[in-house]
Amino acid sequence: MVTPVLSLSSKSQNHSKKTLTPFAFRCRQQHQLLAVIFSLCVIFLIFYHASNHVDMVLLQKEVHEKIYPLPDGSQDYNLLYSNSTKTSSFAGFSFYLMGDTPYRDWQETRLEWQVKQMKQYTKNHPERNLTFTVHVGDIQKVSLTHCAESAYQTTANLLRQGPLPTLVVPGDNDYYDCPDRNATFQLFMKYFGSFEKQWHKKDVEGLGLIRSESHPELFVFVKEGILLIGLHLINAPESHEDIRLWNARMIANKEWVAKNVQHYFRTQEIRGVILLGHALRSPRTRPFFLTVADYFVNITHRQDLPVVYLHGDGHNWDVDTKLSHQLHWKHFRDIQVDQGGLADPVIVEFAPQIKGKLKAFKDESSDLQLVLGKGLIRLDRQNGLYKHPKNVKNLLK
Ligand SMILES: *[C@@H]1O[C@H](CO)[C@@H](O)[C@H](O)[C@H]1NC(C)=O
Ligand SMILES: *[C@@H]1O[C@H](CO)[C@@H](O)[C@H](O)[C@H]1NC(C)=O
Ligand SMILES: *[C@@H]1O[C@H](CO)[C@@H](O)[C@H](O)[C@H]1NC(C)=O
Ligand SMILES: *[C@@H]1O[C@H](CO)[C@@H](O)[C@H](O)[C@H]1NC(C)=O
């Protein structure tokens, strides 16, 4: 579009040299210069408007790009090697689960006490085979800490006293609600981005944990046929963030799940899937779960496996089955843990399997016990909510 304007002006320039006086020539030149500037302005405005229009479209519509790889269960280990999977054995194991703590001084004391209890319990109950701890995000209360580095340090110091390698997924309080999101996300990563390495090498290597290269807060590992996937799910109202950043994060989460489900279902026998994230169920995170569903629902040998999303954010124990009903995804559950300062950590336990036979947990479901996946998974809330959570004065004596 620029070329015609320039060639036009140079043509008339040649012409003007012959016929015009120097003064008139300068005038003509000025006019032409103005014309060129004007044309450039018009072109710029057209492009500016067009690019703004693209921005508007992007802002209005969440992008659902095709993610790689697509769901395909035809090469799955469980399908191709069903002969051997009928006789395979797995040990039982369990892990501690907590979230949304510490929010207050008394919760720091509470956490210190919980960690001490966990240390003793792990040692005294080898039969439960406690192997790691997961904190599902929000390691501080932004209005109290203002996201100072010392808050990250305090929680890291408390959790580091724990008996087991500890994995922390990011919550909104960990950077999103902070004054400087990028700087505080760096802080979160500094303290928790590879937190598990604070424990004994032998214990960490036993997990076989892999972190994403481009998004190291995302992790994955397989333990005794259970695929565990760490996510970066934040509940953010629309308009609180540039939609492009939101989309990029959603795509990273979806790809991480897709890639790992496809890979691990192909290479080994998977008995169940645990998704670990912060955000509670909401219309904004729904597209993520719809994508995850594509990798299980309608794939016969996958849709019978339990898939459980464990998270915090809402601060009270809740077992949600809405998505399960809506999508006819029988074995999907969305489970929210109590706020960590108010209740015992949950013990998430997996039943052993001996020569193809699951030693299923008895379904003695109660307020404090939940058995899922035909007895493969048990969530034990221990003593549940504390009667007097703030009463921490004599806890550490
Ligand atoms: C399963 O076992 C049967 C009988 O031994 C055999 O014919 C078949 O090829 C096996 N299938 C696979 C996928 O190994
Ligand atoms: C505990 O889990 C580990 C790792 O999965 C496994 O190797 C071991 O056999 C289990 N121990 C018991 C007592 O089940
Ligand atoms: C924060 O990081 C994102 C990419 O992760 C970038 O697009 C954005 O411009 C950054 N914001 C600031 C204020 O640096
Ligand atoms: C599963 O298949 C049914 C019937 O073909 C279809 O209506 C449904 O949308 C599918 N669900 C998913 C999550 O793909």
From TrEMBL:
Transmembrane region(s): 33-51
Keywords assigned: Membrane, Transmembrane, Transmembrane helix
Top-rank taxon, per record: Eukaryota
Protein's recorded name: Calcineurin-like phosphoesterase domain-containing protein
Species in which this protein is naturally found: Nitzschia inconspicua
